[in-house]
Every structure is written in structure tokens, then in C-alpha cells.
Amino acid sequence: MLVYIYIPQELLQLLLFPKELLSIPNYKYFVGFIWCLLVTEGRKTTRNIYRYCFFYKKHIASWERFLSKNQWDCMAIMEQLLHKLLELFPKNFMIHGSLLVAYDTTLIAKNSKKIPGIQKWNNHSGNADKGKYIVGHHWGALGIVGSFLSNRFLCFPLIFRLISGRLNPSQWMSDAEGIATSMNCWDNAHAALFQFIDWASKHPVRVVADAYFSNKSFIQPLLSGKNPIHVITKLKSNAIGYLDPEKPQIKKQGRPRKRGQKVKILTLFKTEPIQLISVRLYGETRTVEVVVKDLWVLGLDRKVRIVVTKVGSNVTALISTDISLTPAAIIEIYGARFSIETAIRDMKQHLGLGDYQHQSLLPTFRFIHLAAVAYSVGKMALLKHPNSSWLQAQDYQGDTPWTSELSFKKLRICLRRFSLGKLVLPETALDQGTDKNISVKDAILTIAS
Q: What is the model's pLDDT at position 333?
């Protein structure tokens, strides 16, 4: 137990969910890895994890073997994390009667060509300093979205999959007859979604994604199963739709028409009646002008609900394959999509999402998901135990080191303060078994560096 006295009990309770899936040594590595990701600043490389985890001092080779060779199932841990989230916040993740997952992609730049999967990608970030292209990994990320703190949406990333841009990628899928075909980026997204559906088999699921995914290749396979996965996304500015075909008064030869008059989606604001609706968006209640119409779009096998909104001079079209949703619910759900972008940004800035330096895919895959676990555990601690004594910090004059109640910087500073307090106070029982532990002086210098 001496290993864990430097970690608050509330955080230890949250870290118990994968204990049955890991051996005792692996569980100690797991706890130490998550603690270091939350506490340390700077790069979160394996070498730095080894340096900072003073209470479980193992050789750096042992930490590398934990990621690359030790036997443990990363996806089983993420499944247990999902069940833990649903157990702690059963009502927060039901958004308009279903679980809501967000899907997005992110680029992580890498300099070394020795890392498998490195490719050249177009830079869509809009940051001119990064250049036109980025050399690195392209990850597909899926996370579950919940509503917290007065309808503030938070996303908890659960599944990351490496996307290959090659014409003949090294990823394959097999049908029921055993015929293997190469996967494209849409199959990659479907695999993550179907994995989540398998984990949350008792709950209906909807998925929200940005305009890049508003195409038949992504949406139709999700609707074709026994339990369709409904999609909410944004249409591109040049999107067109079709009305129902008019029935001719006199029957003519040939096949009946499947589509009616062609309509430019964004022009519906000029031709259809406008409604004023109240929407809860980004934590505020707003009144929005909308046009609502059910049309045939994107070559799908069913009609979808289209909501065209106008904010100032900006006209945007959203679609939902679930036509039972109200326009306000569709707008609110699409607004929740941005929570996954915020989560990915926080993981890059605070948890070292892009700091892996491994020359094989297994440790890279495990590192990415451990960063996702650290993100979820940190947010759960801030949401579930905001009044804990170790999370109470005095508000000094001048600029404070955090700006919100869910700040990872606040969590890091409070965890550092708790650990240092345990190191210097006599009740930490460091006087027992001193020869088995690092000295107080060296430990303080290590954690403070």
C-alpha cells in the first residue's frame, strides 16, 4: 500500500476498474503511468514516465516492456472504462433518448521515419506555420459524449484507430464467407463504431460527425443493419436534395420515378417557411431561424430530416437520419460534436497524446489509449469529487493557474501538492522500510523538476 499513499483515495477508487484485467505488476505500471500523465509537465515520453514515477522505481526497460511485451488487453480496458463511465453518470450520457458518440480524425506530426505508419498528409488545420503538409500519423478517434454542469457537453475518447492513406493499406477486413478485402477510411470508422455498439449492446446509439463524413459511403452501412445507427452531420455548401416524385395522373410506360424535383439545400431559406426555435447551444439558450424539410439526399435509401439554420449571414444545413428528432435536438446534438475536438486538444496539450516515440505499433497503440484513460480519469475526478480536500486550492491574488473547474492544470497542481505533502509529513510512514524507498530529498527533486 506504500506505493499508493502518494495518490488520493478518490483517484485510486477511479483507477480500480481494470484491476481484474491486469496482473499485479501490470496494474502497478498502469497506475503509475496514469499518475505520471496527469502530474508531469513537458513531454510524456516513456523515459520521463520512468523518471517521474518515484514511488514505483523500476528500470526504464521494465516500463518499455509494459507497453511493448507484457500481456494485457488494451481494448478490454477501454470497454471497462465505458462501463465505469455509465455506472458513475447513468443519466448524463443519455442525449435525447440514446447514447451519443462523436467521431473525428486528428493528425500527429512525427519526425522519425522509423515509426511504422508515417505518411504525408494535407494540413487542414489552417495554421500556415505548419506548412501545406504534415508528415506523421492520422488517427480516427471515437468518444462518448455526455451532458454535465448545466448542459455542458464533454467527450470521453475511447477508441483510436490508425488511418492509412495508402491505396493498398495493411488493414484488412473479412466477410462472413472469409473473403478478405482492404479497408478504406470509412471502413476504419465503421470498425470503431461497431466496436462501441458491441460494448454498449443494451443502449441505442447515435453518431455525430463533421461535414467530411456527410456521404453515402459513411452513412449507408450504418443504416443497413438490424439496429440502425442514426447519423447527425453537416451538409456541404453545394449539397442538393430531391423531393418525393409526383404521381402522374395518367400511368405511363417505364419504371416510375424514384426522385422528384431537385432542390439546392441552402436555397430552402428563400422558398420554405421560416421557424423561430429556442435552442440550448454551448451552455446558452438562443433563438435561431430554421427551415425544416424531409428530403432524399446523398443517394441514401431513405429520407432524412434537413435543418437549415441562419446565424447572421451564415447559412448552414444539418441532416439527421433519425426523423423523430426535433430541429432543436438536431442542432443541439451537432453542437455537441465540438466536444471531441476539445478533448483531443486537451490530450495533446496536457496528456502527451503525440509524445510517443516507439518503433512498433503495439506500444504506440497502447500509449494512445493510456492517454485517453488518463483524460477520462482526470475528468471523472473533477466531476465526481469537486469538494475533496486535495482539490481545494487557495485563490491567490493575481493570475490563477487555472481558469475553470474542469481544468487539467488545476488537477495537476493539486496532485503535485498532495504528493509533496505526503513526502514531507511524518505520517506518510516513510520512516518504515527506508532502505526500500527513494530518499525524501531525491523524491522531492524528482517530482518538482
A: 94
How many CB atoms are located within 10 Å of the residue 282 CB?
A: 13
Give the pLDDT of residue 221. Answer: 93
pLDDT at position 114, please? 76
For the chain, the structural domain boundaries read: 9-72+369-448, 74-351
Q: Are 229 and 207 in contact (CB under 8 A)?
A: yes
Q: What is the per-residue pLDDT for 328?
A: 92
* 329: region left, alpha or beta (phi > 0 left; psi from -120 to 50 alpha): alpha
Q: What is the pLDDT of residues 15-72, one digit of tens each?
A: 999 999 999 999 999 999 999 999 988 888 888 888 888 888 889 999 999 999 999 9
Task: Return the HEC string of the chain.
Answer: CHHHCCCCHHHHHHCCCCHHHCCHHHHHHHHHHHHHHHHCCCCCCHHHHHHHCCCCCCCHHHHHHHHHCCCCCHHHHHHHHHHHHHHHCCCCCEECCEEEEEEEEEEEECCCCCCCCCEEEECCCCCHHHCCEEEEEEEEEEEEEEEECCCEEEEEEEEEEEECCCCCCCCEEECCCCCEEECCHHHHHHHHHHHHHHHCCCCCEEEECCHHHCCHHHHHHHHCCCCCCEEEEECCCCCEEECCCCCCCCCCCCCCCCCCCEEEHHHHHHHCCCEEEEEEECCEEEEEEEEEEEEEECCCCCCEEEEEEEECCEEEEEEECCCCCCHHHHHHHHHHCHHHHHHHHHHHHHCCCCCCCCCCHHHHHHHHHHHHHHHHHHHHHHHHCCCCHHHCCCCCCCCCCCCCCCCHHHHHHHHHHHHHHHHHCHHHCCCCCHHHCCCHHHHHHHHHC
Instruction: Quick: pLDDT tens for 110-150.
Output: 887 777 888 888 877 666 666 788 888 899 999 999 999 87
Residue 170 has pLDDT above 80, yes or no: no
CA–CA separation, 315 vs 312, rounded Å? 8
Whether the Cβ atoms of residue 289 and residue 310 lie closer than 8 Å to each other: yes
pTM of the model: 0.89
Q: According to the model, what pLDDT value does residue 434 have?
A: 43
Which class would CATH give 74-351? Answer: alpha beta
pLDDT at 98: 94
